[in-house]
Each structure stands twice: as structure tokens, then as C-alpha cells.
Design brief:
It is a single chain. With 169 residues, the protein is α/β, with parallel strands linked by helices. It has a single domain, classed as Glutaredoxin, CATH 3.40.30. Helices cover 28% and strands 28% of the residues. The chain has six helices and nine strands. The protein has a five-stranded mixed beta sheet with strand order 5-4-3-8-9. Strands 1-2 form a two-stranded antiparallel sheet. The protein has a two-stranded antiparallel ribbon with strand order 6-7. The mean pLDDT is 93.
């Protein structure tokens, strides 16, 4: 777990745009988190190496175990639009984990996790972190060390490894 202690804080109110069955749908953090226990994994980007080959497939593999630990749902958030998130989930055959397309980065920014990856041609992205929300309140928090946006291509993946998160909740 990170040294960040935001347990008990409310999740910021943000509206996300999703493309579902050819139609635009707005879903808010209140829709996602109110009266539920939710696990969120936030990742730097769809179709990126670690996110695609390790993290999202492992979250999907452990989905039932997360549910058995009391999670009502498991989400994956990235600073990508809904078209990209949908294509990424389809390409990996993700059936259980739900996507949160933070296309404009508003949620990531309000969580203090929006980082600048313009030096890699990726624009603004989410840092890699995970958290549990119980009825809109942040509980367990997991964050990779060394949050950066100063031109580093450092992309650690240890604290948010899905099995490690599972063992900690």
C-alpha cells in the first residue's frame, strides 16, 4: 500500500461518457459507487504493454475471487475514450471487469493521479493505482511508488498487481 492516506474521503463526483450499443450514455461516480463496494484498478493506457499483457487479464482472471471478497463489482479505469476502452476489452476477451473511460482525465485529475506522459507521445494519463470504495467512501488504497510526470518512463507494477491487491483486501 501507498503512504497516501485518503481512507474515508468521498470519491469526487465525475460524469463519464460511455458508448453502449451505438448510443452515448452518461454514468457518474455516484451511479458506480453509491450503496456498493467496488474495486477500481486505474491504469496508464489501453493497449499498452503491461496493462494489456499482465494487469487487465489478471484482474479478469481473479474476478470471481474479488467478488468472493465482497466486491459488488470490479472496474478498470484509464484515461482513454469509450471507443478505445471498448475495443481494448473486446480484443482481450474481457467479460466480467467493467470499464470506466476517463477520456478527459477529470476523475484522474481530481484523484491527484493524472500524470504527463507527453514525452512518450501519450498525453495526460493515469498513474497506476487501485482502491476499494464502500458507499462512495474510499477504503483500501494501493499506489505504485514514484508517481511522476517529469519526463520519466518509469512504470512500476508491484503494489497494484491484482493478486497482491486481492491478498490485501
Amino acid at each position: 500500500m501507498s503512504e497516501v492516506d485518503i481512507a474515508g474521503f468521498s470519491v469526487p463526483f465525475v460524469a463519464f461518457k460511455e458508448r453502449v450499443a451505438g448510443e452515448w450514455k452518461t454514468i457518474t461516480t455516484q451511479d458506480i459507487f453509491e450503496d456498493k463496494t467496488i474495486l477500481v484498478f486505474a491504469l496508464p493506457g489501453a493497449f499498452t504493454p503491461t496493462c494489456s499483457s499482465e494487469q487487465l487479464p489478471e484482474i479478469e482472471r481473479l474476478y470471481d475471487e474479488f467478488k468472493n471478497k465482497g466486491m459488488d463489482e470490479v472496474y478498470c479505469l484509464s484515461v482513454n475514450d469509450s471507443f478505445v476502452m471498448n475495443a481494448w476489452f473486446d480484443s482481450l476477451g474481457i467479460k466480467n471487469v467493467k470499464a470506466i473511460p476517463d477520456g478527459n482525465g477529470h476523475f484522474s485529475r481530481r484523484m491527484g493521479q493524472l500524470i504527463n506522459k507527453t514525452h512518450l507521445g501519450m498525453g495526460m494519463r493515469s498513474w497506476r493505482y487501485a482502491f476499494v470504495v464502500r458507499d462512495n467512501k474510499i477504503g483500501s488504497w494501493f499506489e505504485e511508488p514514484g508517481i511522476n510526470d517529469q519526463g520519466s518512463d518509469n512504470d512500476p507494477f508491484g503494489e497494484t498487481y491484482p493478486q497482491k491487491v486481492l491478498d490485501s483486501i
